[in-house]
Amino acid sequence: MIEPKLAVCYYPEHWPEDRWREDARRMRELGLSFVRIGEFAWSRLEPAEGVYDLDWLQRAIEVLHEAGLGVVLGTPTATPPRWLVGKMPDMLAQDKEGRPRAFGSRRHYCFSHEGYTGECARIVTVLAERFGRHPAVVAWQTDNEYGCHDTVESYSPAARVAFQKWCARKHNDIAALNRAWGNVFWSMELSAFDEIGLPHLTVTEPNPAHVLDFRRFSSDQAIAFNRRQVEIIRRFSPGRAILHNFMGAFDAFDHYGLSKDLDAAAWDSYPLGFLERSRRDDAFKSRYMRVGDPDFQAFHHDLYRACGRGRWWVMEQQPGAVNWGAWNPAPAPGAVRLWTHEAFAAGAEVVSYFRWRQAPFAQEQMHEGLLLPNSEPNAACGEIARVMRDLASCGPFPKTSRADVALVFDYESAWAWAIQPQGRDFSYFDLVFDVYRALRRAGASIDVVPPEPDAVKDRRLILAPGLFAPRESFVAALETCGAVILLGPRAGSKTVDFQIPPDLPPGPLRRLVDVSVTRVESLRPGAEVAIGDAGVFHRWREFLKLGGAAAAELRAVDGETALARSENAFYLAGWPDERLMDAVLRRLFESAGLTGLRLPEGLRIRDEGGRRHFFNYGPDAADLRPFLGERAFLLGEDMLEPCGVAVAETRAAAK
Amino acid sequence: MIEPKLAVCYYPEHWPEDRWREDARRMRELGLSFVRIGEFAWSRLEPAEGVYDLDWLQRAIEVLHEAGLGVVLGTPTATPPRWLVGKMPDMLAQDKEGRPRAFGSRRHYCFSHEGYTGECARIVTVLAERFGRHPAVVAWQTDNEYGCHDTVESYSPAARVAFQKWCARKHNDIAALNRAWGNVFWSMELSAFDEIGLPHLTVTEPNPAHVLDFRRFSSDQAIAFNRRQVEIIRRFSPGRAILHNFMGAFDAFDHYGLSKDLDAAAWDSYPLGFLERSRRDDAFKSRYMRVGDPDFQAFHHDLYRACGRGRWWVMEQQPGAVNWGAWNPAPAPGAVRLWTHEAFAAGAEVVSYFRWRQAPFAQEQMHEGLLLPNSEPNAACGEIARVMRDLASCGPFPKTSRADVALVFDYESAWAWAIQPQGRDFSYFDLVFDVYRALRRAGASIDVVPPEPDAVKDRRLILAPGLFAPRESFVAALETCGAVILLGPRAGSKTVDFQIPPDLPPGPLRRLVDVSVTRVESLRPGAEVAIGDAGVFHRWREFLKLGGAAAAELRAVDGETALARSENAFYLAGWPDERLMDAVLRRLFESAGLTGLRLPEGLRIRDEGGRRHFFNYGPDAADLRPFLGERAFLLGEDMLEPCGVAVAETRAAAK
Amino acid sequence: MIEPKLAVCYYPEHWPEDRWREDARRMRELGLSFVRIGEFAWSRLEPAEGVYDLDWLQRAIEVLHEAGLGVVLGTPTATPPRWLVGKMPDMLAQDKEGRPRAFGSRRHYCFSHEGYTGECARIVTVLAERFGRHPAVVAWQTDNEYGCHDTVESYSPAARVAFQKWCARKHNDIAALNRAWGNVFWSMELSAFDEIGLPHLTVTEPNPAHVLDFRRFSSDQAIAFNRRQVEIIRRFSPGRAILHNFMGAFDAFDHYGLSKDLDAAAWDSYPLGFLERSRRDDAFKSRYMRVGDPDFQAFHHDLYRACGRGRWWVMEQQPGAVNWGAWNPAPAPGAVRLWTHEAFAAGAEVVSYFRWRQAPFAQEQMHEGLLLPNSEPNAACGEIARVMRDLASCGPFPKTSRADVALVFDYESAWAWAIQPQGRDFSYFDLVFDVYRALRRAGASIDVVPPEPDAVKDRRLILAPGLFAPRESFVAALETCGAVILLGPRAGSKTVDFQIPPDLPPGPLRRLVDVSVTRVESLRPGAEVAIGDAGVFHRWREFLKLGGAAAAELRAVDGETALARSENAFYLAGWPDERLMDAVLRRLFESAGLTGLRLPEGLRIRDEGGRRHFFNYGPDAADLRPFLGERAFLLGEDMLEPCGVAVAETRAAAK
After folding, report:
1. Long-range contacts at A279-288 (CB < 8 A, ≥ 24 apart)
2. Rounded to the nearest 10 degrees, what angle do helices A208-236 and A114-131 cross at?
């Protein structure tokens, strides 16, 4: 069982020191356990080169410690101070237009600049040495939101040289690179690694294989940057969990890969900001503007649980209106509590609100906190108090168990289809998320997983839409795992070198479903292909040639196969609308021996360890009785108010 | 009383000299009094460095003078010639992308380049010495449309150095600047003024306080640039009015501040171009495409009357289709007359049409003039003839008197909310203009005013929506002025340093209405908050905590206060739609003892000195009888045709 | 008569040499006659500076030759290899933002860079010497798609110097240039040719005369670049046709001018890609998404037939989905055959499919070919087989004869109105194409022609909408040609120096229709001017003053003349909608003694040499009987299926 904890993000350097103690007291009073501090504070920790001022941070830690709060210490490397930029101006990242990214906000550094990475190692060492064994320090956060504001890729000279070296290591000789990239096309052949440029400012699109390698490189640079910090912290701060706070709908580097160096993953959950930023239509955004997309939070909880190999936090939880959406509505009453419960139900160890007190100055002054700028409590405080009561009612939460259903999410696939969408609105994230939504509508509890052998063991249903270039070990694992499998569209449609497989898509996945994809098409908005009366394909459609071992399960009105099957494996030849996806899922569930529900719009559930959690994202009260079964309420009752949360437990599981 | 005058803009250098005399004769014949010449002519006045050719201008002035026309002489500094750019290439402004703005159109100079400002002083001195005392010269225009084409702000090295000096003068020591800007946030602290960069090309948004100071600086630079010219002209051309021609819907520098150095303000009124460029919806633009927004002209007349401290002109009046709108329709028959009357009714001393003859060449060749390129009269000539007859019927116009209603328009607020809109469509100009529209619909005559103590004396109603950071002297004046006051939304929500007031918004304005704003939200298009059945908030909404001295006058359906009141002061907690704004105004008028009308769409009035002017912007004839009262027509009759103008006078006032 | 030939584009360097022979055999088997090879292969032909490897190309040619295929040899100058860019980095073109266009795709060269043009002469000489007299080589293609990806104009230093020289040659002395451009406006006067800049990065729009000269210069540079290759090829490869493959809806250089150096024109026909890229509305795009715009192909066939002075090819014919549209649907079954027939009916000598086998790598891997990447036949193979049978049924095709109807298309006009649209959606191409559509709806066979005297001889109807600045010789030819003529809108509205004619538009065209244009206006979407009940003007409208020799044929509801006439010449005073254009055409046809049809939507015809070709672009079968007359079917029957093609011959013409 897990004892969920609440936490908060705090910037002691923003406030007079004489206010710290009272802040700590009130945090504790509210029920918080941990406080994240320190990230962004470089200019206060080292006001001039080599001049350290760590005492204030020491005092802040003591104050929090004395109040009974644990400290999550952030490294300040997301905000290199002005003197450091002055010392090495070429540490600035360059944007895709070739312009240095100026000092004056944050994340203005290039992952590939060795001077800067050395400075980071130095400051992290100083902090870890000084605070690493402090009893208050329970965990570390490296840097902050790697990649935020489009900062994974840099087009600086430092990045160019590092990319050339990366290519040399990967491809070994330039002829191999030319073959892998297909550089014979358009006379793009190179004769030496130092001729490689970065894939930008070309007349028309650069070679997709070139871009993909650049994205792999950029991801690797972020991972290496993080690893260097982790190694230092591990040396000086044994026993403390090391985390990083990832973001939502963000895939610019391999989060599984980076997380391998961490003890737990974390992400920053801003349901309203992310909804506004999404590609959903205006009607959807208006409907959920105060509560967020009913599936977005859960998807990321499941994703980052995978990244953290079961251990994960919400490092920043939206507690009020934010400042960075195109529009920034206030959360509905109850929404903060709802979001907190969704996280705990999905196995979060900690939910940390961002931030303690709204800052009256600088870029985020319109971002609400738990306190108003004048220290009065803001609305979220009441919701947190209610969460504390809920937790008392519910007792410890069951640990998350392996889900029957696994949905593959693969970063490389996201890069590949962003590089080559073929239709303007083809988004890998949206494709996977559409499948996830359907699973949630059916009431499933889901593990989001990487395309790795271990991830598919002991499942009953595995779904891998849009999987770019599955590796042999993963294909072999799928072949032997015994689960029902859904592949397509675009699954297996490329080799790792971004080439079409010699035997056509789905390449090695043909061993699972005996089909060949002979033609694909992207469909403009409004263009649809009807799949009988089961629904339609939109956005994307494929034409299949069925081998002898495959049969058509569904057909389009023009007679083409829409869903093919070989034994327990299915291939879906297009991007389904909601209705079609539901229909496909019903077949899959049936084949897998799973039971699907039909949840009303806005109602969502999660089952874990004998408990069923209910969440009402809709504007009206929901009747839970059809979905209650033999369970009894630990929290809530039959009718669930808007933004309401309920927890029911099977009588068997009840203690 | 004022004798309104007509004028025209003329470019003798564009035409063979033997045509000047005939042009002058026809101008006079048409009834024009003044001619603006000379701006843009630098390459003819000084064809090479230090080589002057002023004789042609002398001859042009003589020709106009002999025809009985007064001359408004423009300084040519908006168009530095090619040889000057060649001599000092770094005089070019740089755009926000960091690129020098090339020679080949106009306004390519940086206000902060000391070499260029010296050149300007030189050419202005030469012109003022030569022509300053010529009896034909009745007035001067400095430069042309400061800021047009986004040219107030320059990101050049010259601007950077000047901004650093400006910051040093303002903040004195760098620690003070760090505190004022809140640079502790994201480690943005600086250790010296020469570390300050210009707020562009940052990874994410720069510090709003940084940007606001940069906008203040940029505004100051424009003002200083203008002042230098004014001082020279005053020295050499005593007794002549000095003006500048401002623009519509343009707020990139402080027009009140710049106008302090002028004798009168002027603006360039292009009703159709500005309508097309506005954010109004397509239905509105289509409805008014040939006549312009019914309130846009009046708003600017009222604004620039304030800038000119009562004295103002229309320096350029659209006489036909222009060339710079996304689409450029022809004005409706009568529209040019309508616009001319609107200006005179609002106190314009001069309305000057742009331009005399349509140029057949270069960038503005599709901009119509009073004459066709072949010198035949264009449609506007007939309208001007009719205006001359109207003026004969009406006699001199009453001088504008102090209006009962004052609407605050503040440039700094415009900058602040452009920097921090918090919702994508939050525009200070639109907010103030929405209030202005409602006042016009109610038939009010309005003074647009700066947030200064003098401006609010002797009023019955003062409105200050969105006022960013009111200064103490202004708040004190509001407290004691005795008028009914409307504040909010966002009024008083920041300090001058762009920080949230320590006691929450509306900061010092709480002395007027006893409320605190605890939360704000921006609302996406389509999202509304119903205020009972009085209308809705859209775009923006605030949550108020009422102090003991405040009461809720209107409530939202969720129970939150929408309109709060403390005695005669009101706080409006959101952006009202048309219906709600009308309802709020009715309350305010009632409290202020004012009478509001309900004018039909498209009909507008202005009362001045016993006269009521009627303007019909609608597509159908309007019945004036309900709004005539005890007045008798000086011009027009009961039914007012589309584009029609009528003037009626109270019997008492009738001579 | 013409024996139409089929061909294909092939890249032997992309495939193992041992596959070439089988490829050639299958090409022949499919009925193909020619194979285009070699363009883009520079890095294989000259892998390092001065190191040639031409043997593989020799072997490829031999293989094709032995299979009975003719070879069209491309010069590889569209893809300068990496070593060449490294040798002379300033050969890179610069984009309008002033940034060098990087290596890594194609067309990264500047037409004005003398070093690069020398390199091109060298490689072309090498190829022409080696292969020019090979019996397999039947034709050459210079470079590839000049101007693709916006590459006609370069803003590089090399281009700047070349433009200055071009201006000096054209204008002779700088005072003349100042006068021609009207540089007195805004003090833009220059004192020497080396002061001329390129027209970009100016504060507001640059002088239209400046831009027009720059576009003329840029066009001239492309023509000169091509001519240099042509001269070399002619010297070393006598008797072979030299072609270039132009594009659709592309007008950035003078295609008539460049074609004068060629033996035949060719264009690359991608009906689905071009439809998606067009400005047509979503409903139209959805309706025709799998078959293409019913008139787009025919328009370009007629245009490039004019460029090639009767001789023309389709060099690249879309055979499946492409990769470069915003969305890329698959063609409807039958569409490839339909497109092929449209081309042959319009006189194409060759239709060449792009490409033989879909490449599995690099930028165009999603572009379908005749074969799948695994060498299996793709859908188009079946259609080609059917085309071969059709050709057998139809026998040789009649040569195209001079059409009664000539529609003027002028590149300079396209540049002029792109420079000065005056209304955001004014497109010369769209204007001419709207007229073309109406002619097609009326069943006319059309010659698209340049504004040159020869082009208008022996016509019955000539249409010249939007003709910018007609030269005297053309006006004189129109005066004496005896045909019915349609001019306007905007026809003759400028001089060659981009100035309004001294006697107003339509300038010299007034000799044809006795009108003056006193005013024009552009109309926002939704704004219309009704022309009685015949239809409306949208987008653009003019006000005419009629001279004594003109009469109003149609009037707008406001009484203004919409269609004026002087004898056989008409002037249309606006942009007509479909209904109005049809009504105008009926009058013109009647005056010209032509018979117009009213074809149902989607059905199109072409008459040539006694044959009538039918094409059904619609989704339903079309009844041909109303349009059959006394003809008998050579191909097809009364009811024409969707994508169907029929050919009928008059009994007289039947052999």
Report:
1. A279/A425, A279/A427, A279/A430, A282/B524, A282/B525, A282/B526, A285/B524, A286/B524, A286/B526, A286/B527, A287/A619, A288/A617
2. 30
State pTM to two decimals.
Answer: 0.97
CA atoms within 13 A on the CB side of B243: 32
> Can you read off the two tokens belonging to residue C537?
């003007």
- Helix (H) / strand (E) element for A245: namely strand A245-246
User: Can you tell me which residue has the tokens 């072979």?
Assistant: C240
pLDDT digit string, tens, across residues B330-343: 999 999 999 999 99
Residue of A497, A313, A525 whose CA lies nearest to A419: A497
Mind giving me the DSSP string for B160-183? HHHHHHHHHHHHSSHHHHHHHHTT
Residue A544 three-state SS: strand
What does the alpha-carbon distance between residue C123 and residue C46 come to, in Å, rounded to a whole number? Answer: 8
Q: What span, in angstroms and rounded, lies between the C-alpha atoms of B588 and B569?
A: 9
User: Reduced to 3 states, what is the DSSP secondary structure of residue B430?
Assistant: helix
CB contact under 8 A, B204 and A373: no
Determine how many CB atoms are found less than 10 A away from the CB of residue A324.
16
Task: Indicate yes or no: CB of B191 within 8 angstroms of CB of A83.
Answer: yes
User: What tokens appear for B123 in the block?
Assistant: 């050419």
> Are the beta carbons of A368 and B500 separated by less than 8 Å?
no
Catalytic site residue from B39, B46, B316, B412: B316
| ipTM of the predicted assembly exceeds 0.95 | yes
Separation of alpha carbons A205 and A213, rounded Å = 15
* Rounded (5°) CA angle A62-A64-A68: 110
Q: Is the pLDDT of residue B480 over 70?
A: yes
- Considering Cα of B1, then B6, then B12, then B17, what sign does the dihedral take? negative
**Best mutation target, C202, C203, C212, to test chain B (most B CBs within 10 A):** C203
What 8-state DSSP symbol labels residue A627?
Answer: G
For residue B653, pLDDT over 70 is answered with no
DSSP 8-state assignment for residue A332: P
pLDDT tens digit string along C400-440?
999 999 999 999 999 999 999 999 999 999 999 999 999 99
- Spell out the residues 6+ positions from residue A441 whose beta carbon is closer than 8 angstroms to its own: A582, A598, A599
Nearest to B524 among A13, A81, A289 (CB): A289
- Catalytic annotation present for B316: yes
Cis peptide leading into residue A465 (ω within 30°): no
pLDDT per position as a tens digit, A560-602: 999 999 999 999 999 999 999 999 999 999 999 999 999 999 9
C-alpha atoms less than 13 angstroms from C-alpha of A475 in its C-beta half-sphere:
16
| Residue with token string 């019913």 | C294
Å between A34 CA and nearest CA of chain B: 22
Q: Cβ contacts of residue A499 below 8 Å, gap of 6+?
A: A182, A209, C360, C361, C365
| Residue tagged 């409807």 (tokens) | C332
Strands B484-487 and A536-546: unpaired
> Amino acid letter at B360?
P
pLDDT in tens, A110-152: 999 999 999 999 999 999 999 999 999 999 999 999 999 999 9
Contact B13 C499 (CB under 8 A): no
Collect all residues of chain C within an 8 Å Cβ-Cβ radius of residue A498. 361, 365
Share of chain C above pLDDT 90, in %: 98
Cα–Cα distance, A563 to A450 (Å, whole number) = 24
pLDDT in tens, C90-123: 999 999 999 999 999 999 999 999 999 999 999 9
Q: C322 to chain A, minimum CA–CA distance in Å?
A: 9
Closest-CA distance of chain C to residue B100, Å: 8
